User: Which sequence fits this backbone?
């Protein structure tokens, strides 16, 4: 059995000019990956704290997106069917966050973001990476990124549930319909941003237009593919805005649940 040795990468790759420096750039090329590391680490720290806090995630009629769907019987509120009993020391968020986490972790854009910022592979254009070999996404754990399309489908289910949460937010504290507050708007915007992030996804674009030999024979899919292709050009923007949207929505619900202030009511 023969084994293939990974090809050298970076400045040592065959056919590349021999340059004794990692790069010849004079601008602040390191700034963008540094900002990416800061923002992602800040989100990871905040979301981890909130997932394990196991409190202040529901205030009638709002529920935090970190805890929705809340599927155990110990959940606060009744926005989703409670499916089973769970140990009190396990936060309800830990049962469901694997889906949105997996969707973002395997996302084509986020892969580019954390490859460049955390692994410096490469850190920027025309800057050599420090790794001597390149294996791509053929080994554990990166080979797991190939299941992104399945996380995408599961993510659509979560988007539907969060949209349902936004609809439930058109009630007051007594459960009466036909009311709205600032929290209603916050949940609606969050759901909309998550839908934009999802439908602009590369996997969504492939589902609409992939594996077709003749677009002319599939006019509806072609129109959908054309629309999603336009959205796909802004996928990076939706990835970041929706990430902030989820965190800010959770933070808003937490403020209400801790009685930091009262939810302004529109009607």
Assistant:
């Amino acid at each position: 059995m023969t084994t293939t040795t990974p090809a050298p990468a970076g400045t040592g790759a065959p056919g590349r000019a021999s340059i004794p420096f990692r790069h010849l750039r004079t601008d602040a090329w390191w700034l963008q990956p540094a900002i990416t590391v800061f923002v992602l680490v800040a989100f990871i720290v905040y979301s981890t704290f909130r997932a394990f806090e196991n409190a202040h995630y529901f205030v009638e009629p709002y529920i935090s997106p970190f805890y929705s769907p809340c599927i155990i019987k110990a959940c606060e509120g009744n926005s989703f069917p409670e499916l089973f009993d769970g140990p009190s020391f396990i936060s309800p968020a830990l049962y469901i966050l694997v889906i949105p986490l997996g969707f973002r972790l395997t996302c084509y854009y986020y892969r580019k973001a954390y490859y460049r910022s955390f692994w410096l592979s490469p850190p920027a254009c025309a800057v050599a990476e420090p790794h001597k070999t390149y294996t791509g996404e053929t080994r554990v754990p990166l080979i797991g990124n190939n299941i992104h399309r399945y996380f995408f489908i599961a993510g659509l289910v979560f988007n539907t549930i969060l949209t349902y949460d936004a609809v439930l937010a058109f009630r007051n504290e007594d459960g009466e319909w036909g009311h709205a507050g600032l929290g209603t708007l916050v949940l609606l915007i969050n759901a909309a941003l998550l839908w934009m992030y999802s439908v602009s996804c590369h996997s969504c674009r492939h589902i609409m237009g992939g594996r077709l030999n003749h677009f002319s024979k599939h006019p509806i899919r072609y129109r959908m593919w054309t629309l999603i292709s336009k959205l796909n050009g802004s996928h990076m923007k939706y990835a970041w805005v929706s990430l902030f949207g989820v965190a800010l929505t959770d933070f808003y619900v937490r403020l209400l649940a801790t009685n930091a202030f009262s939810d302004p009511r529109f009607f």
Q: What stands out?
A: The longest strand covers residues 58-59.
